[in-house]
Design a protein that fits this description.
Blueprint (H helix, E strand, L loop, with lengths): L10 H41 L7 E2 L19 E6 L7 H14 L8 E3 L5 E3 L17 E6 L10 H17 L7 E3 H5 L5 H5 L1 H12 L3
Parallel strand pairs: 1-4, 2-5, 2-6, 3-5
Antiparallel strand pairs: 3-4
The chain binds zinc ion.
Length: 216
């Protein structure tokens, strides 16, 4: 048997090896290209899906048009969303809706809001979004208002109310093409301590805005 010796490659063989190495390199870079494209497509679809904000489930219980809670005046525009608290611990959405409705008989004051969110996270829609509410003083003419129920004097929203508020505000931001810097507290309009917990705790308000942003 002949011992295995080192065989010198011919020019033709060297050329063939160079071609094979070149082909492997091309294949390698092509595969990286395909994988990168695939990842970008998946990310793109993910981003598109994320941009859809589901319309929150709301119960329409429009107030009767009256000069104490639903003046029937058209909004000039929607340039912001104003968050409030009811300042009535333990009251639910229906209680607050009925209070606004009854103002047309009691004439106690002029107050209302577009939405009230209850302690179970239920959302009552009280005034059409092209009409003015009586909630936010000088900003009544160009904002949507949301009253939130709360269990106790601290004014902190429970999880159900909070989660519904985040969804509703995110949906409104999308609908009216507003960024989260247009989401404000009643406090930011007049200095009134409303919504109390989120005036007392600036960090909680900032966290709320972040939670809304994460939905957009
Ligand atoms: Zn308020």
């Amino acid at each position: 048997m002949a011992a295995k010796g080192k065989k010198k490659l011919t020019k033709k063989e060297k050329r063939r090896i160079r071609i094979i190495v070149f082909q492997i390199a091309i294949l390698f870079f092509a595969m990286i290209g395909v994988i990168t494209t695939f990842v970008l497509i998946v990310k793109g679809i993910g981003a598109l899906v994320k941009k859809e904000v589901a319309e929150p489930g709301v119960t329409e219980e429009f107030l009767t048009v009256n000069s104490y809670s639903r003046p029937g005046i058209k909004l000039d525009a929607v340039n912001g969303i104003v968050v409030h608290y009811t300042a009535n611990p333990g009251s639910n959405a229906q209680d607050n809706r009925d209070y606004f409705e009854n103002l047309r008989f009691t004439h106690k004051t002029k107050v209302s809001s577009h939405y009230v969110i209850g302690l179970d996270g239920e959302i009552l829609w009280l005034i059409p979004l092209d009409e003015m509410s009586y909630a936010s003083n000088s900003r009544n003419s160009d904002t949507i208002s949301i009253e939130c129920c709360h269990p106790d004097e601290s004014g902190m929203f429970n999880d159900a109310t909070y989660n519904s508020l985040v969804n509703l505000v995110a949906w409104l931001c999308k609908k009216f093409n507003l960024s989260t810097d247009k989401v404000i507290r009643h406090y930011d309009v007049t200095g009134k301590i409303c919504p109390k917990y989120y005036v007392d705790h600036e960090d909680a308000w900032q966290k709320f805005l972040e939670d809304v942003q994460s939905k957009l």
